[in-house]
Amino acid sequence: MTVKPIPDGYHSVTPYLSIKGAAEAIEFYKRAFSATELLRLVAPSGEIGHAEIKIGDSPIMLADPCEEGAFRSPQSLGGSSVGIHVYVEDVDALFAQAVDAGAKAVRPVQDQFYGDRTGTLEDPFGHVWFLATHKEDLTPEEINKRAEALFKQAAA
After folding, report:
1. What is the average pLDDT across 32-40?
2. Which of 52, 75, 147, 156 has the most C-beta neighbours closer than 10 Å?
3. Per the domain annotation, does 6 fall within a domain?
4. CA within 13 Å, CB half, 118
5. 3-state SS of 60-73?
6. CATH number, domain at 124?
7. What is the pLDDT of residues 96-127, one digit of tens each?
């Protein structure tokens, strides 16, 4: 039997989040994003050594920080330099669900020039989430044309 280099259900790129309080984060992601828990490995210290959840069709790995391994949480860094972009059927509904679960609205849900309806959240653990529903198929040329018009309008 041949082993697949990418396991079934996984993608070539899978986010791996460092979260101080990973166990609490898993429960938050279940409430906020309807995540399902796939795996949880608890270290002797009680911290999460490795866990996997699934949001939509995408797995996300997470664990408590490992400072000696340069795997630091947004809390220890004073913010996050990475955002997680999630496409969903109904961005308005999931955005409201996440805020009700404790996420902070950074940017409200609104239609974007590139054809998506998006909103930005920060979870209680410092990670940034871009929630979106794709509303309009556009070519790169159409997106650039709309961007130029938007930038001109903003400069005026």
Report:
1. 98
2. 52
3. no
4. 19
5. EEEECCEHHHCECC
6. 3.10.180.10
7. 999 999 999 999 999 999 999 999 999 999 99
Collapsing DSSP to helix, strand or coil, 6 comes out as coil
Total domains, the chain: 1
Percent residues over pLDDT 70 in the chain = 99
- Euclidean distance between CA atoms 86 and 33, whole angstroms: 10
- Residue in 99, 96, 126, 149 with CA at minimum distance from that of residue 24: 126
What is the domain extent for residue 106? 16-155
Q: What is the pLDDT of residue 66?
A: 87
Q: With contact defined as beta carbons under 8 Å apart, do 63 and 51 qualify?
A: yes
In a domain, 35, yes or no: yes
110 CB-contact burial (10 Å; exposed 0-12 / middle 13-18 / buried 19+): exposed
Cα dist from 23 to 91, 95, 100, 104, 132, whole Å: 26, 22, 19, 19, 26
Do the beta carbons of residue 117 and residue 135 sit within 8 Å?
yes
Tell the burial category of 119 from Cβ atoms under 10 Å away from its Cβ (0-12, 13-18, 19+). Answer: buried
